[in-house]
Q: What sequence folds into this?
């Protein structure tokens, strides 16, 4: 029996105790990590130990200017330089969702049904993290390229040039390339551009690596110094006609994320079986739930470019 994954959640909730045994938490975390393979690895991770409050902080060392003056006299001291930093901080947020189940379901369902439900919750949690990241960073960035009626490789070139012009560097997760995250329609518009298409004329590895996680993507799967990755989590503006997809080109230190592997993230899978559901009449319904603390924040506006492309309903 297959359980369809639920839609992503961006609201806050709190579910209390009754944490499932570790085998279910491991299954939940495996599904969570599998579905945070695009945007999340590109962020600078901030750690927060348990008991250290709820504010996550990220600090970046700014690139110093070149030294253009030589030491004036033999044996003299070079001039002093000041290294500056940029600091960002944000409060952790709490995310989660509850899935009800009946006493009859758990008593009669095929073996493995609960395990599939746990994996679906992990999928939902991972999707929620990715969507939350992209919603936050696209809402706050100031560098924009408008690709017009369809995403093109030339629009990607313009966005890459903007990042290079301000001295941005590729993220470690996609180095030596910047990372482009695009909607389904944007990516397939771009790889089908031209006659013959540029993917035919230049590199088919881009097409084959569209859906793979960043880890393991070959460096040859790029164009204009950018890796091209497809994600279903791209925000869409629906107040325009047609709608606009907010695709993004990301450089190093563009945004911060709270580390999902650190103890303050406190991921949990909570099972409240019917016998324990004292708030339910006749105690005939239980719930499965997940709980997670997470935060993302745009930290350097000149390290991310939003590339708008018309969305006509294909992707």
A:
């Amino acid at each position: 029996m297959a359980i369809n994954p639920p839609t992503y959640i961006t609201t806050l909730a709190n579910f209390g105790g009754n944490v499932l045994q570790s085998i279910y938490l491991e299954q939940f975390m495996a599904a969570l990590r599998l579905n945070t393979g695009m945007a999340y690895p590109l962020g600078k991770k901030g750690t927060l130990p348990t008991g250290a409050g709820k504010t996550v902080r990220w600090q970046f060392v700014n690139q110093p200017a070149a030294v253009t003056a030589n030491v004036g006299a033999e044996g003299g001291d070079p001039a002093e330089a000041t290294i500056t930093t940029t600091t960002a901080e944000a409060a952790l947020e709490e995310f989660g969702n509850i899935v009800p189940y009946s006493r009859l379901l758990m008593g009669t369902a095929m073996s493995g049904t609960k395990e599939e439900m746990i994996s679906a919750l992990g999928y939902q949690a991972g999707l929620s993290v990715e969507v939350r990241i992209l919603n936050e960073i696209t809402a706050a960035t100031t560098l924009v390229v408008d690709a017009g009626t369809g995403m093109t490789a030339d629009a990607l070139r313009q966005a890459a040039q903007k990042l290079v012009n301000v001295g941005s560097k590729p993220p470690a997760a996609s180095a030596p390339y910047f990372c482009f995250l695009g909607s389904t329609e944007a990516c397939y518009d771009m790889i089908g551009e031209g006659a013959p298409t540029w993917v035919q004329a230049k590199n088919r590895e881009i097409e084959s690596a569209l859906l793979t996680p960043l880890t393991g993507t070959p460096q040859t799967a790029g164009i204009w110094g950018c890796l091209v990755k497809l994600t279903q989590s791209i925000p869409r503006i629906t107040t325009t006609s047609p709608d606009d997809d907010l695709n993004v080109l990301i450089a190093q230190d563009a945004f911060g994320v709270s580390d999902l592997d650190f103890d303050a993230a406190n991921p949990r899978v909570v099972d409240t079986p019917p016998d324990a559901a004292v708030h339910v009449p006749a105690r005939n319904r239980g719930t499965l739930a997940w709980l997670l603390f997470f935060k993302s924040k745009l930290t350097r506006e000149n390290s991310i470019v939003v590339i708008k492309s018309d969305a006509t309903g294909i992707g």
Notes: The longest helix spans residues 113-140. Residues 12-20 have pLDDT under 50 and may be disordered.
